[in-house]
Design goal:
mainly alpha
C-alpha cells in the first residue's frame, strides 16, 4: 500500500512537516533554474544586457510554469500543489516545455548568451524526459533539478563552487522529499541520475564546458 505524503492534509502541516513543505516549495526546480539563469546571464554578459536576458529566461522558464500550476490549482484541475497523481502533471509539463522552447528560440534568434541558450535546451530535454517518465512512474523532479543545478555550476564556475553550493542543495532537497514521503529512494536516485545525464549529454555539443 502506497504511503500518503506527510504534508498531504492541511492539518498535518505543522512543525517540521510545515518547515519541510515550505522549503520544498521555495527551493523548487523553477526557482533553482531562475537563479542559475541569472548567474549564467550575468556571467556571460555582465551588466544590464545579461540581467535582461536572464529576466526573459526566468519569466518564461520559471515564472510561466509556476503560473500555469497555480491556475490549475485554483480552478480545481489539480488536487494539490505537488501533484502526487502523475496524471495531473501532463498539462504542467507540456506548458513548461513550450515555455522553454520559446526561451530557446528568443535567445537563439536575438543572439542572447550562449549559456542561456544551452540552459533552455537543457530544460526542453529534461522536461520532455520527465514528462515521458511521469506518464508511468513518479520520478523526482526536485532531485533532478537539484542535481542538474550542482553539475551546471560545477561545469561553468568550477567544481569547488559546484560542490560548495551543490552538495548542501542536493542533500537537503533529497532529504526533504524523502522525509515528506513525496518520493521513494528509487525515485530520488532516478532523478539524480537524470539531472546529471541530461547536462552531460549537452557538453559534447559545446554547452557548459566553458563560458
Amino acid at each position: 500500500m502506497k504511503k500518503l505524503p506527510l504534508d498531504l492534509l492541511v492539518q498535518n502541516r505543522i512543525g517540521l512537516v510545515k518547515a519541510a513543505r515550505v522549503y520544498s516549495n521555495v527551493v523548487s526546480p523553477p526557482v533553482m533554474f531562475a537563479v542559475v539563469g541569472l548567474a549564467f546571464g550575468l556571467y556571460a554578459q555582465p551588466g544590464l544586457s545579461g540581467f535582461l536576458w536572464a529576466a526573459v529566461y526566468g519569466l518564461l522558464v520559471s515564472l510561466g510554469p509556476i503560473l500555469v500550476v497555480l491556475f490549475l490549482l485554483k480552478t480545481g484541475r489539480i488536487a494539490e500543489l505537488h501533484m502526487s497523481n502523475t496524471r495531473e502533471r501532463h498539462i504542467p509539463y507540456i506548458s513548461a516545455i513550450l515555455f522553454a522552447g520559446i526561451a530557446f528560440v528568443l535567445v537563439t534568434r536575438y543572439n542572447g548568451p550562449g549559456l542561456l541558450r544551452c540552459l533552455a535546451l537543457f530544460n526542453i530535454i529534461e522536461l520532455t524526459a520527465l514528462a515521458l517518465i511521469n506518464s508511468f512512474w513518479l520520478i523526482s523532479l526536485h532531485a533532478t533539478g537539484a542535481m542538474a543545478t550542482a553539475v551546471l555550476l560545477g561545469l561553468v564556475f568550477g567544481w569547488p563552487v559546484g560542490l560548495l553550493v551543490g552538495l548542501p542543495l542536493v542533500g537537503t532537497v533529497c532529504w526533504v522529499r524523502l522525509f515528506l514521503k513525496r518520493h521513494s529512494m528509487a525515485q530520488i536516485l532516478a532523478g539524480l541520475a537524470l539531472g546529471t545525464a541530461v547536462v552531460l549529454i549537452l557538453v559534447p555539443l559545446g554547452c557548459f564546458a566553458s563560458a
